[in-house]
Write a structure and sequence with these properties.
CATH class of the largest domain: Alpha Beta
Structural class: alpha/beta
Strand content: 15-25%
Keywords: NAD
InterPro entries: Gfo/Idh/MocA-like_OxRdtase_N, Gfo/Idh/MocA_Oxidoreductase, GFO_IDH_MocA-like_dom, NAD(P)-bd_dom_sf
Distance between the termini: 42 Å
Number of helices: 13
Shape: globular
CATH topology of the largest domain: Dihydrodipicolinate Reductase, domain 2
Helix content: 25-40%
Largest sheet: 9 strands, mixed
Protein name: Gfo/Idh/MocA family oxidoreductase
Radius of gyration: 23 Å
Number of domains: 2
Length: 388
Amino acid sequence: MTDTKIRLGIIGFGAEGGMYATFIRDGMVPNMEVGAICDILPDKKAGAEELGVPFYENYIDMIESGEVDAVVTCVPHYLHPEMGIAALERGVHALLEKPVGVYTKQAREVIDFAASKPQLTFGVFFNQRTNPLYVDLKSLIASGELGALRHTSWIITNWWRPQGYYDQSDWRATWGGEGGGVLVNQAPHQLDLWQWMCGVPQKCFAKLAFGFRRDIAVEDEVNALVDFGNGATGHFMTATHDLVGTDRLEMLFDKGKIVVENSKTVTITRLTAPEQAISENMSMDDVRKLFTGQLDTGALFETETTEYESVWGQQHATVMQNFAVNILDGTPLIAPGPDGINGVRLANAMHLSAWTGEEVDMVNFDEERYLTELNARIEAEGAFPARS
């Protein structure tokens, strides 16, 4: 560890950029300081003055100023890749907000460019990867203690957004301005965590509802089935119109089960033997006793429940700290930039499946077909340029 501080340039000084600056100012991110602020709105200069750092209205000017060692992109999704490339080609490290891009072709451009600059650090802001709950589950699953994955289901509908939320900006909830709805705005962390723990799916079939309960063009409800290979399957459901909301993740394995409620309460059941062995060796009399509550289940499985608490801001601060020490001493990144394409591909596959009514091959994902379908919707909106 070194006392050197990485000077971070914050591109976009809204709620998110302001939050990161506060964490750094308050000492939550050792080895990092705010080097400069950039925003297209001149009135944001007051925030830079309060921090005592230079202010820029053009992010290229900030990157080339010599005032920053790295940048973080707190801007609309479509801008993340081009800003990342601009920084990296000028020798500045890049931490991109999620998603790393709106579509895989775009995401690959910044990932491939970063690969040509191995001396620079390229990360994606998946702060949930530092959540102790998911860190512990990732470790448990990777250990093989519970055996192979059979099925997983994540219902996460606690993203309720009123119509007024979408009416705040012309770009919000549009194909051309935002690139999608709940899959690209609210759910990217879950799409990443799901694959981080369970593996990257090979196929996807999805039913999406577009403007289902809100006056928007993009998806506000998602139901998707995925195939992980080797017989393992998954279901992902999310929505922005459920006022009460649910957050429940289940992962079933050969030798146990994990249930996470509200991203806080974890119940782990460990079987005393693989489920199929239990099935093969159980007498019908024991089956009767099990179904009637007369069998001591302790001989079959044990269950433990753990409650996790999180400290506000600590996860974001940990990502920035990890990013800084990777630059300084090579400590491995928690969320390397190339990992960002997995969530983008899964969201794209869900869109494409819903648009075409087909199961989508994610191993050989057709990027050009997706882009053609996306551009058709952008052109129909008539408010934003087509993408390439």
